[in-house]
Amino acid sequence: MPKLTLDGREIDVQPGATILQAALSRGHEIPHFCWHPGLSIAGNCRICLVEVEKAPKLQIACQTQVQDGMVVRTASPRVEAARNAVMEFLLINHPLDCPICDQAGECRLQDNAVAHGTGISRYTEPKLALAKAVDIGEHVLLDQERCIQCSRCIRFCDEITGTSELAFFRRGERTVIGIWPGRRLDNPYSGNVVDICPVGALTLKEFRFQTRVWYLENTPSICAGCARGCNVLIATGRQRELMTTQGQQDDRIKRVVPRVNIEVNGHWMCDEGRLSFERLAVAPRLRQAESGGSAADYDEVVREAARALAAAAQAGRAGLLAGPRATCETLYAWRRLGSALGSLRGAVHAIERGADDELLLRRDKGANSRGAAWVLAPPTGEAGLLDAAARGEIDVLVVLGDALDPHDTPALPDAVRARVETLIYVGPFRDAAAEAARLRLPAAAWSEEDGSYVSFEDRVQLLRRARLAGGAARPGWRIAVDLALAAGVELPAWTQAADVLAAAAQDVRELDGLTEERIGLLGAPGGLAATAGA
Amino acid sequence: MEKILTRNIHKERSVSIDVYEAGGGYQALRKAVRSLTPDEVTDQVKKSGLRGRGGAGFPCGLKWSFMPKEKKKPHYLLCNADESEPGTFKDRLLMELDPHLVLEGCLASAYAIRADACYVYIRGEFVHAAGVLDRAVAEAYAKGYAGSNVLGSGWSCELVVHRGAGAYICGEETALMTSLEGERGYPRVKPPFPAQRGVWGCPTTINNVETLACVPSILERGPEWFAAIGPNERNSGPKLYCLSGHVKRPGVYEAAMGLPLGELIYDLGGGMLHADRPLKACIPGGSSVPVLAAAECDVALDFDSLVKAGSALGSAGIMVMDSSTCMVKALLRIAHFYAHESCGQCTPCREGTGWLERVLERIEGGSGRLEDIDLLKSVADNIEGNTICALGDAAAWPVQSFVKKFRDEFVAHVQAGKCTVLSHA
Fold first, then answer.
1. Is the residue at B9 inside a domain?
2. How far is residue A234's CA from residue A277's CA, in Å, rounded to a whole number?
């Protein structure tokens, strides 16, 4: 392994690594703007200039490969002077609008101005006036004055989506980024350019002016938009500290951004997933238990549902139709409830739209289709269950509503509604299935509960609660436990999702040996191939 | 001195292949492809001491020897005909008046580096020269000097004239490649160097027009003959000098490497334009090199002598300024050029060149402050050495040298709020 002496400390470096990669892998920060681990090297910002022994000029750390025995200084007076210079250059035409800029607080220019700027500018000439708030796409606005021409967004559209909507126009200090005439930044991944923009030049219309980023609380979780299972950070208002003008706690989801997981989504996510929380936010919610169309006490409704379900399950005439965005925990708890009561014929609803693309998007919108198949039922059972119900073979049908979008909850054919004696809806929304149900139990939606999903690549990943469900709503597995108690059958004394997962891992072969700890922030492979060796 | 590079330019129909052949043209190429190996051609050029005429003065044969010996991908020779350094107009002369000399140089050099094709990347504004070259290329193909199986040697080489769109930056070797590939003319971060990964990712050598035009005579008359022209083997060969500014006879002059600057101005150039206005300053190598004050002008025009004098031969664009010249205005004009031509890719050059221009504009306009003079130097220092390509240095050097050598004039300009030179010129 090549050896590098970095600021006096000798370290081993992966062959072929650049100085910047070597430094970052040791937690040694070298400032950078244009370099991004998911994109090609541009070398244009010049802030990462470092001193390499024997090289007469300063070298850019992002592009210079480590040679064995290389001696690099990243904090010498010469290096610091060059950083001061680059920062001064970057700021001469940059507007001082941090107080109204969405990027403030997570802006690399701001951070590096503090860390490597001199605090004063010698520039007294007028700043360049360029276009502001240019509408370049469905989700993205461009501020040409804030742009530092790092070309990350251009490289993203060239190298990742291959759509090349963006380019540099004009020359020298008049250089601006823009879209080609007649085009729009309308690829399905456009929001990523906002994430990778190191300054506030590209902003997301849906997040603009919503909040200051230091009021956000980030929760690592998994996108529920499709079977890819992109790792995300869910950003909510900080529950304790931020109050709205109405004096209420503001824990709404403000944005969702990708969380790096090279095995799953790399650095990116699609716009559909990024903005899926908006559908959740505006959907009519079921907050309280209801019986016969009017609000009722939760325990009351649970008792009523338990009675009906127990009788039908004993007679082998109970069914469960689950959405593919229910967690493994919920599905497993219902499976256990079914066996405890007698038998519960389980099926999983399928949500399929569009097509798989070459990057991330999947046609299967069921974020836990794979997990549901492992835990509850093979993916082919839906039609059979509904047919049986339409033939009058099912007395009690439980519908587990979709966790993300009311439109994705299975629609029940009229024949099913007509023949099923008791329809029980367990879910977060007032969707069509809920309207048809006599008994309604409010469940937590995506982002409101802990749990696990299994991606189409058999990767088990953890969802984390980012906000409270509100009202009487609770995780679907807890409702199963409540029903068991009311029906007088025994389920283990689970108090948190991790307990349910631990039980499932002992029972479901594909989850064998998995614990929340082993799954961790980046997920772990499940399925028979992975667990056979474990 | 006997004319080598300009030997044909005064002939009638000098652009035609017949005239060129009648003067012994294409014999060097014939000799190379029929009786020399590519490495032997390279060796001869190495021995001649030929250094690049485009600006940097890199030894030509050494550059060629960086090309892979074993061919895994196509090799390319690029002829840099994007001559756009202010004060430089020698390549244009060769292309307009002796295109076959340029093409023979291209082909013989292409043979040396085992090239499959040679692209002549010509500055967009050189419309006439491009037409002349196009016709010459067609003639060379017709005579079997280019294309498949050149002169029956078994070696094939395509020859293409490609017109740029008129950007100074595209004369920078890696920007030229990017432009040739059809992309925005941005310089590339080096390494990799062109010989490792050049145009279309293939090994590439890029030489200036005049450099390539020297090659036929080296092959005809031998490297020793070439090396003997000029002061020493590191500064050898015939050289074209572009003389402009306040002289009686501006123009392109061919002389041996190492021509004394005084001889160029006062003998070949006919002396200063106005008898009562003596020499004040001279930029010896195109606008990017440091200016020489009159007292420094007793210097030989070759690579090493000018470096010793604190400047550079660059592209041999010698700009002569007499006592009526306002150095603030002259520097502003240069700074404007670099601000206009900066490609905008990397931060120091993109932001710094515009800053320099605006400060100079303010001084020139009478709103300068004394601290602006140090600011100019500091901004230039912050650009120099920190950019992707040499344009940043090219923008910085004139500022540093003008401010250093003519500081009193800048001070006077600031204090008077106007030019103090023209009034008593």
1. no
2. 9
Strand partners, A205: none
Q: Which of B340, B353, B385 sits opposite A58 (nearest CB)?
A: B385
- CB < 8 Å to A62, chain B: none
Q: Alpha helix (H) ranges present in A318-380?
A: 328-341, 369-375
- Asked if the C-beta of B44 comes within 8 angstroms of chain A's C-beta atoms, the answer is no
Contact by Cβ (8 Å): A264, A231: yes
Is pLDDT above 90 for A242? no
Specify the pTM: 0.94
**Among the partner residues A41, A89, A93, nearest to B348 by beta-carbon distance:** A89
Task: Specify whether B91 is located in the same domain as B224.
Answer: yes
Count of A–B CB contacts within 8 Å?
90
pLDDT greater than 70 at residue A246: no
Q: Is residue B248 part of a domain?
A: yes
- In the predicted model, what is the mean pLDDT of residues B273-292? 97
Total residues found in chain A within this entry: 534
Domain, as residue range, for B170: 17-228
Cβ–Cβ below 8 Å for B347 and A148: yes
- Asked if residue B339 and residue B268 are part of one domain, the reply reads no
CB distance A125–B342 less than 8 Å? Answer: no
Answer yes or no: do B36 and B118 share one domain: yes
Q: Which residues in chain A have their CB less than 8 angstroms from residue B354's CB?
A: 93, 128, 172-173
Residue A122 has pLDDT above 80, yes or no: yes
Q: Are A296 and A289 in contact (CB under 8 A)?
A: yes
Residue-wise pLDDT for B375-409, tens only, equals 999 999 999 999 999 999 999 999 999 999 999 99
Domains and CATH numbers, chain A: 3-75 (3.10.20.740), 290-533 (3.40.50.740)
- ipTM score above 0.90: yes
Q: Report the sign of the C-alpha dihedral through residues B324, B327, B332, B333, in that order.
A: positive
